[in-house]
Design goal:
heterotrimer; A alpha/beta; B alpha/beta; C alpha/beta; A: alpha/beta; Elongation Factor Tu (Ef-tu), domain 3; Rossmann fold; 2 domains; 7-stranded mixed β-sheet; 6-stranded antiparallel β-sheet; 7 helices; 15 strands; 31% strand; globular; C: alpha/beta; 32% helix
Chain lengths: 275, 288, 330
């Protein structure tokens, strides 16, 4: 019986502590055939099972062509994420997926890209950035604005150097509160966006972060002349099946697990129910 | 329906709304079956014409006040319901000066469900120990020509007399039907925890499994949380879609608390509930 | 061509079915009528309006195990739950049968829910036409009827000394005893439930999403789960792992969109935290979103929610209110 609720067994290969509460978890599917057939694109997600506790959905932050295993940035915030954080390399977990739609990055070729992330919101944006970097000549300018509460909470710090050094790429980091070593910006992400003021001409903005950041970032983008169909985000929700069956993750008639999680603001503005 | 009583209620409600003394009235209106009652929130003076009061008004409306913190509301309260008001005032869920209590002299209510109206009074009305609400700002109706009754626990004694195995089988059978809709909890004025223990997942005290043993745990713990607090409105049993005799759980503890502590909940807003009060003078059975 | 079955024929037939399969039938339980597995035909109640809980309790049980996790020598194995036995559900009202067909849409569409699909394939439905319409019934207003055979394998309609038998599917035909006589006359006309006009409901709902109507109606809603649990077409569920006698089981249980924490994510954000938003969600799912996805209203007019709601939230009243509000808004 082919039960879509049964996860695939996987082994935790390694973890990197990205921030005090976020770990980069590298996971390898046990079954070779499933591993080889697991094809995914930036924006898609998978359920990770901490057996004995349950499952939760996480954006896949790796790229198939760059990594052997699957990478997830997991923030310890609830019962499942706490159990996942307690796993050691070599432990068994479950993976179900990939689910959802993806960022249509092929459609954005030739355009300037503005990537705006706050906190754990950087996670789904990392494979977007890496795709652009892997096909650098296919895209125009790349502006990355990455904010967090404190310098310790900036996710993917190990990759900042690579991002900054890429051609035609600008990385603007900012924090809400600095510390004794921080010499960078102390400002909210939407304010940085207004200050840097990227041109909206032939540009696409992709943003992800806490709801309040999205709200003010959206305002700032529109102030810069970005149209709703030039602004893209990825929504999250409490999910239990990932397949449109448990009827929980809907925003109006759209299921975030199937119609999303990637949506343009033009689509979202037409939603009956607002996320 | 007692038209004089209803007119008193409507006049008082209208005055309160027109003067701005309250934001809204929580009362009863006729249900969609044209026969029974349902809760009704009136916010405009003209809406008071929809207010009713009769023997189908069994609902305890006090629960609704828990969500109305910061808003001045008026509420219709039967004597039994008024005990819930005292309970919530005592537990600081309601501020006394934020609620205008329209008390009613209640002639007793019948069993109702949609499109069904019983012919005889509910058992709890037949043994009602109160003649009028224990707290009110305005009293509608006329004092009934009866005496307060003494509480009778024959329904509890029947179960107490069962041998343990039979009693366990009785409860497992009834609680086996529970579908964990939580209607009993949602309707109960004593259940207002922002996160109920049954919904906690860390630790998972009960968990999400809907099965006899888990259901038993759910109901038992809820009953224990109501010990010394349940005011006997019987809303839990009325709301239950699968007819579990919940009153027999709550009344069991009510009987024990009355016997052990000579205490009944909700009779005064300043009472000292046995399980929420610690007196240093109480003997704890150990050396002091 | 309809067949005839006497009461005795029916009892004998059910006794036979009972020997080879699980037989679920309406049983009186403490004053309620519930679908239960019966061990003898005498336990079945043939005289009932409708059961308190719909036959969805079989296809999507209140709780079921999806799979177990077994650890042995450091090696983990996932053992899926299976559905082994054939089953028959006797006494399914046409409205409830339609409810099952409506639930097929989300559960059988790719990727199909394996447990649901197995149970569906292994279960035969013996329907029972309604002789009377109850005050809460409105099946004819939502695409069903008291004698609608569309969603069962066999439909029985009671007549004076037995039943008219309509054979609807091959699966039903295979189960029938041999040698039944042909029915002479047509079965009696069905009763007429109250009509609830539903024209214009879908466009009305499109317009009325942000109306204060929902928050006001929700004031008396208790946000329990009664309406969703007694409903033949509500199917939201929760999934969580639990220890069970040394193993871990992944369990699926009923939950409903009315539950205050239904959409709350870890960390505390709740996109549907208001009472009005949650109440509105249930009616929008049934009357707008589900029809948008599957071209049918997810309500079969059984009236169980009307009967069971402790505070009289009445879907028929809501449909009528929405139509009026819709007409006013133009």
């Amino acid at each position: 019986m082919d039960n879509p609720f049964i996860p695939n067994l996987a082994t935790l290969k390694g973890t990197v502590e990205l921030t005090p509460d976020i770990k980069l978890m590298s996971v390898e599917l046990e079954d070779h055939a499933i591993r080889d057939g697991f094809d995914y694109k930036p924006g898609q997600f998978a359920f990770l099972s901490a057996f004995g506790v349950g499952e939760a959905p996480f954006g896949i932050v790796s790229l198939p062509q760059r990594a052997d295993g699957l990478e997830f940035a997991v923030r310890r915030i609830g019962t499942v994420t706490r159990a996942l954080h307690e796993l050691e390399p070599g432990d068994t977990l479950g993976v179900r997926g990939p689910f959802g739609n993806h960022f249509p990055l092929e459609d954005y070729r030739g355009r300037d890209m503005v990537i705006i992330g706050g906190g754990i919101g950087m996670a789904p944006l990392r494979p977007v950035i890496n795709t652009i970097l892997d096909h650098r000549n296919d895209y125009g300018k790349l502006l990355i604005i990455n904010g967090a509460r404190t310098p310790q909470d900036l996710v993917f710090a190990p990759e900042f150097q690579t991002w900054m050094e890429a051609p035609q790429t600008t990385l603007e980091l900012t924090v809400d509160r600095g510390d004794e070593h921080w010499t960078g910006r102390v400002a909210l992400v939407p304010d940085v966006l207004k200050e840097v003021a990227p041109s909206s001409n032939n540009a696409i903005a992709i943003t992800c972060g806490p709801p309040i950041m999205i709200r003010f970032t959206l305002e700032a983008l529109k102030g810069l002349g970005f149209e709703d169909n030039q602004i893209v985000t990825t929504l999250e929700a409490k999910m239990k099946c990932g397949m449109g069956k448990c009827a929980r993750c809907n925003v109006g008639d759209k299921y975030i697990c199937r119609d999303g999680p990637v949506f343009t603001f033009e689509q979202i503005s037409k939603f009956l129910e607002q996320p | 329906m007692d038209s004089e009583l209803i007119q008193q209620i409507r006049n008082q409600a209208r005055d309160l709304l027109e003067s701005g003394a309250v934001k809204g009235i929580i009362g009863y209106e006729r249900a969609s079956d044209g026969l029974t009652a349902r809760p009704f929130f009136a916010y405009e003076p003209d809406a008071v014409e929809r207010l009713i009061f009769d023997e189908t008004c069994t609902h305890n409306l006090v629960k609704y006040l828990v969500d109305k913190k910061g808003e001045r509301m008026a509420i219709l309260a039967k004597p039994c319901d008024s005990r819930a008001l005292n309970l919530l005032i005592n537990e600081e869920q309601i501020k006394r000066d934020q609620v205008f209590i329209i008390g009613v002299y209640c002639p007793g209510v019948v069993e109702t469900s949609w499109n069904q109206k019983g012919q005889t009074q509910q058992p709890r009305c037949q043994t009602c120990q109160l003649l009028k609400p224990v707290v009110y700002d305005f009293l509608a109706g006329q004092e009934p020509a009866r005496q307060p009754e003494a509480e009778v626990y024959s329904d509890i004694e029947e179960i107490e007399s069962m041998p343990t195995a039979e009693r366990r089988a009785f409860w497992l059978e009834h609680l086996g039907r529970c579908i964990r809709c939580y209607a009993c909890r949602q309707v109960c004025p004593g259940c207002y925890c922002p996160e109920c223990f049954a919904e906690q997942l860390d630790p998972a005290w009960v968990g999400i499994r809907i099965a006899p043993e888990e259901n038993e745990l759910w109901q038992t713990i809820r009953t224990l949380h109501l010990a010394g607090r349940c005011i006997g409105c019987n809303e839990c049993e009325r709301a239950c879609p699968v007819d579990i005799p919940l009153s027999r759980l709550n009344r069991k503890l009510e009987k024990q608390v009355a016997q052990l502590f000579e205490f009944r909940a909700g009779l005064s807003p300043d009472e000292q509930p046995p399980f929420a009060t610690f007196n240093k003078e109480e003997r704890l059975g150990s050396e002091e | 061509m309809n067949l005839l079955m006497s009461r005795d024929d029916l009892v004998r037939w059910l006794q036979l079915l009972l020997q080879e399969r699980i037989l679920l039938a309406p049983m009186r339980v403490q004053g309620l009528v519930l679908f239960q597995p019966v061990s003898k035909v005498e336990d079945i109640t043939f005289d009932f309006a409708n059961t308190t809980l719909p036959p969805k309790v079989w296809f999507l049980p209140p709780t079921e195990t999806l799979f177990s996790v077994r650890s042995c020598d450091g090696h983990t194995e996932l053992v899926p739950a299976t559905v082994e036995q054939q089953a028959v559900i006797f006494g399914v009202r046409p409205c409830d049968a339609k409810g099952i067909t409506l639930m097929d849409s989300p559960f059988l569409e790719e990727p199909g829910d394996a447990l649901y699909r197995e149970r569906r394939a292994k279960t035969t439905l013996i329907g029972l036409s309604c002789r009377q319409a109850q005050p809460e019934c409105f099946c004819t207003s939502v695409g069903s009827a008291p004698n609608d055979p569309s969603n069962v394998d066999i439909l029985l309609t009671e007549i004076e000394d037995g039943y008219v038998v309509q054979v609807v599917t091959e699966q039903g035909k295979a189960l029938l005893p041999q040698g039944l006589a042909e029915a002479g006359a047509a079965p009696p006309a069905p009763p007429e439930p109250q009509a609830v006009p539903t024209e214009g409901i879908v466009p009305a709902m499109q317009m009325l999403f942000n109306q204060p109507y929902w928050e006001r109606l929700a004031e008396r809603c208790l946000h329990c789960n009664v309406c969703a649990y007694v409903c033949p077409t509500c199917y939201c569920f929760d999934v969580r792992d639990y220890p069970n006698k040394g193993n871990i089981e992944r369990v699926r249980s009923w939950e409903s969109c009315q539950s205050p924490g239904f959409t709350r994510i870890a960390g505390g954000y709740n996109p549907r935290g208001t009472k009005g938003g949650r109440l509105r969600q249930r009616f929008y799912h049934k009357l707008l979103y589900f029809p948008g996805q599957f071209q049918e209203i997810a309500c079969v007019g059984c009236g169980r929610c009307v009967k069971a709601c402790p505070v009289n939230i009445d879907i028929r009243e809501i449909i009528s209110d929405l139509q009026q509000l819709g007409a006013k808004s133009g």
